[in-house]
Specification:
There is one protein chain. The radius of gyration is 28 Å and the shape is elongated. The protein has 27 helices and 14 strands. Helix 18 packs parallel to helix 20, helix 22 packs antiparallel against helix 23 and helix 26 packs antiparallel against helix 27. Strand 1 and strand 2 form a beta hairpin. The strands form three sheets. Strands 1-2-3-4-6-5 form a six-stranded antiparallel β-sheet, covered by helices on one side. Strands 9, 10, 11, 12, 13 and 14 form a six-stranded mixed β-sheet that branches.
Length: 656
């Protein structure tokens, strides 16, 4: 079965199987992504009516577009068997995580329970508002992405089995231990049934065990006391469980938003709020199945938004301006939308596995993606992207830091996992103000197809931003680099990103040189080599490096006269040599190719100042500020210029 092909999907491995169906990991050969194929249970009759019902359910589920609901890509049929094509979520199930902790004698903390549960609430609330009920929510249907985010899967499929004519004794799509009493009696599910199931999942997260073993217990027995197993949890948490799992639907929470409101109140002051800042970097890109130690950290990077929201709420209460908590929770549960004006910072990608040999490759992907997005700015007036050098210089690694430093409203985080044969990159677009994930994607590829992988990363990022990736101006000559050369080029860019580390410049030079041995006419590698030599000169003041920088950058523009970074390097070289007229010309050419580069405007301003053109210098500094008015450094550069020229009052206005 491992080598079987289904339509255009290559089966990679079986992930699990039971009487409810078989699940396979597969590769979509058309789109080059990893997916999951779920073949439905043999209890589902192979009738046209049953297949039609599956298709109808799949169509409804596919319309659910939410960060905490797993994506259903397609539905198909193979040799009379119906299958679903689902998003691949490599972090496993919440059930697996709780089970692993229990085997280690551990439990989820209150903060982790609340974090997982509120994400589930967000997904359920979104679905309920659109008339979609899950019907069989359980911890086995709550999946973890590679970045630790929670996603609900298998929406609505319980109804497929219930109305398909499957034998009554046959199992539905999973365990029945979370079913509401009304469902156990044979009734239909409504949103309150999902609330009951979520209450059971909350109990399981807290204790490591299910409160009921079969639906008959759910109908007759009362919810066991969570305090007997977890006396460390507040009494109010037990009250939430009791109300969520009340036998009478009328006595339960009547909406997921209502449950979330109480849950958030109980979790206030928990370690999620107090320690989330310390664990954010580890959480941001952690693969929850990578190591046991990572599993025991408070998860969910977006929970940093709790701290922000609660602090703001406290301040508003003090001022007598706080809005009702119910309104805040309802607003939080509603998926955030992309801002009309997109101010983006690309954060350093995390190196999963922390293999030192992969760090430069990981950093290189960050650099090249940022450069591609910088080019996209020219075609997308609504987009501004912080240059990679600015993020690197400011040592920004978190979304809230990027907002504070650059005034951005969006941040792109990512993680890179590289092995002997391929690379998997997970991307997450984050609302930098509320620190919550707006969208996430996973892109995979083979090492021999790295250029295609980088292209896929760019396309997915542009799509998450609501932009057309094809609108990007082309700065290349249309040819692809040799695979080995591109790999080495990415490593060179990665080493260059860390030029402040003593050995990194030498490593960057070596990587670019090796790339050029593989492909002597690869212009981006020549441009990168020129930049590395230029930084080497400014660090050592050894004149040999400035000559090497000029030769490499000149050769790069001879091969491709649309490489703005190469012209920027030449401008810096000419400035270092005191050839200011040539420096101005080179910077102007770089800006013609990329007119939204604030660093190029600042360098042009310095060149104007060196030529004595003070008015032109101020205008260039001001242009850099206009591109990023909320970035303090632009004002600082101009203020420093004014101060050095005796214009103290002007300088003071810049520094205020």
């Amino acid at each position: 079965m491992a080598s079987r092909r289904v339509s255009h999907y290559d089966i990679v491995e079986e992930l699990g199987g039971s009487v409810s169906g078989v699940v396979y990991k597969a590769r979509d050969t058309r789109l080059g992504r990893t997916v999951v194929l779920r073949f439905l249970s043999p209890y589902l009759p192979a009738s046209q009516e049953a297949v039609t019902r599956v298709v109808d359910e799949a169509r409804a589920i596919s319309r659910l577009n939410h960060p905490h609901i797993a994506v259903l890509y397609d539905v198909g049929e193979e040799a009379g068997e119906t299958y679903l094509v689902l998003e691949h979520l490599p972090g496993g199930t919440l059930h697996q995580r709780v089970r692993d902790l229990r085997q280690a004698g551990l439990h989820l903390s209150l903060g982790e329970i609340g974090g997982y549960a509120l994400q589930v609430c967000a997904g359920l609330a979104y679905a309920h508002r659109r008339g979609v009920i899950h019907g069989e929510l359980s911890s086995g249907r709550v999946m973890l992405s590679g970045e630790g985010a929670v996603k609900i899967t298998d929406f609505g499929l319980a109804r497929v089995y219930r109305h398909s004519g499957a034998p009554a004794s046959g199992p539905s799509l999973g365990a029945t231990a979370c079913l509401s009493p009304e469902q156990a009696r044979g009734g239909e599910a409504d949103p309150r049934a999902d609330i009951f199931s979520l209450g059971v999942v909350l109990y399981e997260m807290a204790t490591g065990e299910l409160p009921f073993q079969d639906p008959h217990e759910e109908v007759e027995a009362r919810m066991p006391s969570v305090a007997a197993v977890r006396p460390d949890l507040p009494a109010a948490f037990g009250e939430i469980l009791a109300r969520a799992t009340d036998k009478d639907p009328e006595e339960r929470y009547q909406s997921v938003e209502e449950l979330a409101e109480d849950l958030q109140r109980v979790c206030r002051g928990s370690e999620v709020v107090s320690t989330s800042a310390r664990t954010a970097d580890a959480v941001l890109n952690a693969d929850t199945r990578q190591t046991r130690s990572r599993e025991h950290q408070p998860l969910l990077r977006w929970l940093r938004s709790w701290r922000t929201a609660l602090a703001a709420a406290a301040a508003l209460v003090t001022l007598g301006l706080a809005v009702p908590l119910r309104e805040r929770v309802a607003d939080w549960l509603e998926p955030a939308t992309l801002p009309e004006r997109k101010l983006l910072a690309v954060l350093p990608f995390a190196n999963l596995g922390e293999q030192p040999a992969n760090q430069a490759f990981c950093d290189g992907l960050t650099e090249t993606l940022t450069a591609r997005l910088n080019q996209l700015e020219q075609a997308a007036d609504s987009l501004r992207v912080v240059a990679a050098g600015e993020v690197r210089a400011a040592k920004v690694t978190r979304a809230e830091e990027a907002r504070r430093r650059f005034g951005v409203n969006l941040a792109l985080s990512g993680s890179v996992q590289r092995d002997r044969d391929g690379v998997r990159v997970a991307l997450a677009l984050v609302d930098a103000g509320r620190v919550r994930v707006l969208d996430n994607r996973t892109v995979g590829g083979r090492l021999v197809d790295l250029a295609e992988l980088e292209e896929g990363i760019f396309r997915h990022t542009a799509t998450m931003l609501g932009l057309d990736p094809l609108a990007q101006p082309q700065d290349g000559d249309g040819r692809m680099a040799a695979p080995a050369a591109y790999d080495l080029y990415l490593q060179g860019r990665g080493h260059l990103r860390r030029y402040d580390v003593p050995t990194s410049l030498d490593r960057a030079i070596s990587a670019f040189q090796q790339a050029l041995q593989q492909d002597p006419d690869y212009a981006p590698a020549l441009a990168g080599l020129g930049e590395a030599y230029g930084r080497k000169y400014r660090k050592t003041r050894d004149p040999q490096w400035i000559g090497e920088a000029q030769r490499s950058a000149t050769r790069a523009v001879e091969l491709n006269d649309r490489l703005a970074p190469a012209y920027l390097t030449l401008g810096l070289v000419h400035h270092d040599e005191g050839r200011y007229d040539e420096a101005v010309a080179r910077f102007q050419r770089a800006l013609k190719l990329n007119p939204v580069d604030p660093a190029a405007y600042r360098e042009l301003a310095r060149a104007y100042a060196a030529r004595g053109q003070q008015q032109e210098a101020v205008q260039a500094f001001q242009k850099a500020i206009d591109l990023w008015p909320d970035y303090w450094a632009g004002h600082s550069y101009l203020g420093d210029y004014y101060f050095r020229h005796g214009r103290d009052q002007d300088a003071e206005r810049c520094f205020l």
